[in-house]
Amino acid sequence: MTSRPPGFGSTVGETPPAAGGWREGDPNGRRRWFRGALPGLPFRIAYETWGTPAADRSNAVLVLHALTGDSHVAGPAEPGHPTPGWWDGLVGPGRALDPARWFIVAPNVLGGCQGTTGPWATAPDGRPWGARFPRLTVRDQVAAEVQLADALGIDAWAAVLGGSMGGMRALEWAVSEPDRVRALLVLAAPAASTAENIALASAQLHAIRLDPVRGLGVARRIAHVSYRSEPELDARFGRAVQDDGRFAVESYLDHHADKLVRRFDPASYVTLTEAMNSHDVGRGRGGVRAALRRVTARTVVAGIDSDRLYPLRRQAEIADAVPGAGDLRVVTSPHGHDAFLIEVDQVSKLVDDVLGTG
Ligand SMILES: CC(=O)SCCNC(=O)CCNC(=O)[C@H](O)C(C)(C)COP(=O)(O)OP(=O)(O)OC[C@H]1O[C@@H](n2cnc3c(N)ncnc32)[C@H](O)[C@@H]1OP(=O)(O)O
Ligand SMILES: N[C@@H](CCO)C(=O)O
């Protein structure tokens, strides 16, 4: 964790949280908070759980969300939370994550804006953190989640599951805390963010620094193109033009931008994007391959055949280096990176295999 360079984010973090943000309160009666501290950063983590912990906590599964996700893995849209659970189809009786068997824990990431401490929150001096919020790494985020596990009495997770940014944290958990992760699913995530990932993020960060609110919309448009595949966009929208004169694909991106701006904090988006840029499990550990050899979890690594953000070779690298990981698993989908949210049947099968319930 480092403080920001002088001048960083002069326009970032001064915006009030967007109206309707799911930052406070307990709208679904399941959200809980844990208070912890990293050096210079007292924090709270909002989390939701499903199911009942076994006396020895041996049935605990950690589910980690992606960039704009949160603790609401399952359940309907709610007041203040305009989207249903992001893996709603995976949680429930008879589903891959059955609360009758598993104690499912889903925290909102450190630096996020859906209940957990982020730049939107109040600093110890009583003023909003804003642009003073420390720069976080994925390792800091996992360190905070380790404190949550300690508080819940979970010595080792039966499984840690994550897609995209959640997959980065899942992998970091398995590398930094190998004794505490018995099984691991890394889905559509890399061992380290690549030059292209950082380049795409750079354009998004510049947009937000120019104008936090409109910039967040631009950032989402840039990002969303990378979340879908070129053939899909072509097949769905082609060159169609709407009555209002916009290309249909422009209108589609406008829609996703508007939705995100209404529910997400620009400064959190910056914090989380910078954390993803920091992601490199090999840093200070002798490189990626050496770091991945630390993993002792029963591991399933999966990618999506149409993912252009984290192409399959990024997951092949992980599957190749993690001891006993076996072959890379491939989710077949036209939808690109977002398939980790969309292809519920295929992802359920992966979760079954990780949990040994398939
Ligand atoms: C990790 C996380 O979990 S984040 C939380 C969930 N994720 C998000 O909200 C991220 C943003 N959304 C997405 O990434 C995707 O919508 C997913 C992955 C959730 C779902 O993907 P899909 O089912 O393929 O939805 P798709 O991307 O086609 O978007 C559908 C929306 O676009 C709208 N849309 C489609 N075509 C157009 C168009 N030409 N003009 C305007 N809007 C359009 C639809 O009306 C629909 O709107 P709604 O979501 O408000 O109902
Ligand atoms: N749609 C996903 C993509 C990033 O993985 C999100 O918004 O979190």
TrEMBL record:
User: GO molecular function terms here?
Assistant: homoserine O-acetyltransferase activity
Q: Which residues cross the membrane?
A: none
Q: Is Transferase set as a keyword in this record? A: yes
| Listed EC numbers | 2.3.1.31
Q: Does the keyword Ion transport apply?
A: no
Domain called AB hydrolase-1: residue spans: 59-341
Major place of residence: cytoplasm
> Sorted alphabetically, which keywords does the UniProt record give?
Acyltransferase, Amino-acid biosynthesis, Cytoplasm, Methionine biosynthesis, Transferase
Organism superkingdom: Bacteria
Database matches in InterPro entries? AB_hydrolase_1, AB_hydrolase_fold, HAT_MetX-like
Q: Where does substrate bind?
A: R220, D338
Which family, according to the similarity comment? Answer: Belongs to the AB hydrolase superfamily. MetX family.
What does the protein in this record do?
Answer: Transfers an acetyl group from acetyl-CoA to L-homoserine, forming acetyl-L-homoserine.
NCBIfam families (alphabetical)? homoserO_Ac_trn, PRK00175.1
The name under which this protein is listed is Homoserine O-acetyltransferase
Report the source organism: Saccharothrix hoggarensis
Whichever gene encodes this chain, its name is: metXA
